[in-house]
Automatic annotation (TrEMBL):
Residues 72-127 form the Integrase zinc-binding domain. It comes from Mikania micrantha. Pfam families: Integrase_H2C2. Gene3D superfamilies: 1.10.340.70. This is Integrase zinc-binding domain-containing protein.
C-alpha cells in the first residue's frame, strides 16, 4: 500500500497550500492511529467504520480527509490554513469553512476556534485593542432653522 497522494499535493483552488509530504504524513499517521492501542485516544466513537480508503490510500470521512489526533498533524494543517499567503489570518468561521471542504476530525470547529483565539497576530488586530488615531472631538450639533 503506497501512502503517496497522486494529485493531492497540488493547490486546490487556492484554498490551502499544503506541504508536499503532508499526504504521506497523514497516511502514515492514519495507519498508526487505527491500531487498537491508539483508537481509543482518537475519540471516533464508532465513526472509524465509516472511514473509506480512496485511490490515494488516505482514509476519508464523508469525502474529507480524516486528520488523526495522533501525530499532531491537526496543528500543522491549521497552521497552514491560518498562516498561508492565500488566507492571511482568517477568523475562526472563515477558516472552518475553508477547511471543512478538505479535512475532518472530531470537534474540528471547536479546535479551530481555540487555535484562532490563541493567535497573537489575530488578537492584536481586534478592534478592542486598537487605539484611535487622534484626539476625539465632539462633532458639532446642527441647529434647526
Amino acid at each position: 500500500m503506497s501512502c503517496v497522494g497522486q494529485g493531492y499535493d497540488r493547490v486546490r483552488a487556492l484554498q490551502l497550500t499544503i506541504h508536499p509530504i503532508l499526504p504521506e504524513q497523514i497516511c502514515n499517521v492514519q495507519v498508526d492511529a487505527l491500531k487498537e492501542e491508539n483508537l481509543v485516544a482518537e475519540s471516533l466513537r464508532g465513526m472509524e467504520k465509516q472511514l473509506e480508503v480512496k485511490a490515494d490510500d488516505l482514509h476519508y470521512f464523508m469525502e474529507r480527509v480524516w486528520v488523526p489526533l495522533h501525530g499532531n498533524l491537526q496543528d500543522l494543517v491549521m497552521d497552514e490554513a491560518h498562516k498561508s499567503r492565500y488566507s492571511i489570518h482568517p477568523g475562526s468561521n472563515r477558516m472552518y469553512h475553508d477547511m471543512k471542504i478538505l479535512y475532518w476530525w472530531p470537534n474540528t470547529k471547536a479546535d479551530i476556534a481555540t487555535y484562532v483565539r490563541k493567535c497573537l497576530t489575530c488578537a492584536k488586530v481586534k478592534v478592542e485593542y486598537q487605539k484611535p488615531s487622534g484626539l476625539l472631538t465632539q462633532p458639532e450639533i446642527p441647529m434647526w432653522k
